[in-house]
Amino acid sequence: GSAAPAFAQQSAKAAVGAVRIGSNECWTGPLPAGAEAAMLIVKDGNRYEPSDQHAELFKAVSKVEGVPVERILAWPGSSDPLARVPVTFASPKRGIVTADPTYESIWRTGAWIGAKVTKVPLTSDYRHDVKAMVAADPNAGLFYVCSPNNPTGTITPVEDLEWLAQNKPKDAILLIDEAYIHWSDTPRAVRLAVERDDVIVMRTFSKLFGMAGMRLGLTFASPALHEKMMRYDGGQVTNMLPMTAVACGAASVPLAAQIKQRADEMIAARDYAIAHLEKRGVKVIPGSKANMFMAEWKGKTPKEMMALFLANGVQIGRGWTAYPQMSRITVGSMEEMQKFCLAYDKIAMA
Ligand code: PLP
User: Fold this and answer.
1) 108 to each of 130, 162, 330, 335, 345, how far by Cα in Å?
2) Is 32-252 the same fold as 6-29+256-349?
3) At what angle do helices 53-65 and 243-252 cross, to 10 degrees?
4) Which part of the chain is the Aminotransferase class I/classII large domain (predicted)?
5) Domain residues of the chain, as ranges?
6) With the CA atoms of 259, 262, 267 and 269 taken in that order, what torsion angle do they form, in degrees rounded to the nearest 10?
7) C-beta neighbour count of 114 within 10 angstroms
């Protein structure tokens, strides 16, 4: 048959019982209050919307992020808008400009719709090279920036994003993917999606909120852009959401102290693992502000390292063609990162 999609290649089955730090999932489940809200609403699952769940989610998000309710839309994760935005704003005549390496989903959608996809290397300090991105395709309909970037975890400063918004072709759209923003203490791009009508900021509950399998995401954008994104399902897009996810998200978003505690614990686990590798002479891409980092192996490919780690009970992430000697490592719990470090030492000594 045809090749399995990328996400299916790294089979979940192969990793059962292993430390799973390969897919940028959160090591722990939803925040307890969110899980409770989801369980409570199951009994009302016969209704498309038992009461006012969407409005409650949007109100909660609006309060935390300072985005007016009319500029917020919810999705089953961010994969749907990440495909829908290029389908809406790019075409064989209007290209897509992204970084390299970055999250490749948009490359595949771009190829499928016949849009020219231009991949611009990150700067030497692993930011998106916004000047080179603007210069890369004067006909671009869409610029995609992932900050913190997957797989490097590095930030592109909001000033650079603002410059990109101001200097791209006027009718092009800037899509900013903030899937990993909750581990970062730098200013967010949300303001751009409030002040401008040509910027979309995208969030997901799959990462810090621990809801990857429950499916919830958000876009912040002008009502006009959202309307264009919904053209092919007649404006009924929010009907695709399970109420369990909507209720869980609405209950989780306001929990600032728990969100920060979860982020801080994972940052400590990340920095522990990075320090361990660096002590062993392994180069790690500096500046990660996310639940992932990239490590450079000497004399082994990412594929070989993945197999070696799995043989030691740890499922690490894959490589990216731009950096052929590196693997992406997701940050798990402190205990899991200790197991990862032990596994590395075993592999290095073998
Ligand atoms: N954007 C980025 C940068 C990601 O890393 C991912 C998943 O890994 C996604 C979007 C899509 O995830 P989801 O559909 O679960 O929100």
Assistant:
1) 22, 26, 23, 36, 37
2) no
3) 30
4) 20-341
5) 6-29+256-349, 32-252
6) -170
7) 10
Residue 133 in contact with residue 146, Cβ under 8 Å? Answer: no
Q: How many residues does the chain have?
A: 350
Helix orientation angle between 334-349 and 256-279, rounded to the nearest 10 degrees: 10
79 lines ligand 1 (CB under 6 A): yes
CA 147–ligand 1 middle distance (angstroms): 12
Note down pLDDT in tens along the chain; length 350 residues: 344 444 444 555 666 789 999 999 999 999 999 999 999 999 999 999 899 999 999 999 999 999 999 999 999 999 999 999 999 999 999 999 999 999 999 999 999 999 999 999 999 999 999 999 999 999 999 999 999 999 999 999 999 999 999 999 999 999 999 999 999 998 889 999 999 999 999 999 999 999 999 999 999 999 999 999 988 776 665 678 999 999 999 999 999 999 999 999 999 999 999 999 999 999 999 999 999 999 999 989 999 999 999 999 999 999 999 999 999 999 999 999 999 999 999 999 98
- What ipTM was estimated for this complex? 0.99
Q: Is the CB of 103 under 6 A from ligand 1?
A: yes
Terminal CA-CA length for the chain = 38
Tell how far the Cα of 168 is from the centroid of ligand 1, in angstroms: 25
| Radius of gyration (C-alpha) of the chain in whole angstroms | 20
Q: Is 209 in the pocket of ligand 1 (CB under 6 A)?
A: no
Which superfamily, per CATH, for 6-29+256-349? Aspartate Aminotransferase, domain 1 (3.90.1150.10)
CATH 3.40.640.10 is right for the domain spanning 32-252: yes
d(CA 32, CA 331): 21
Q: What distance in angstroms lies between residue 23's CA and the mean position of ligand 1's atoms?
A: 10
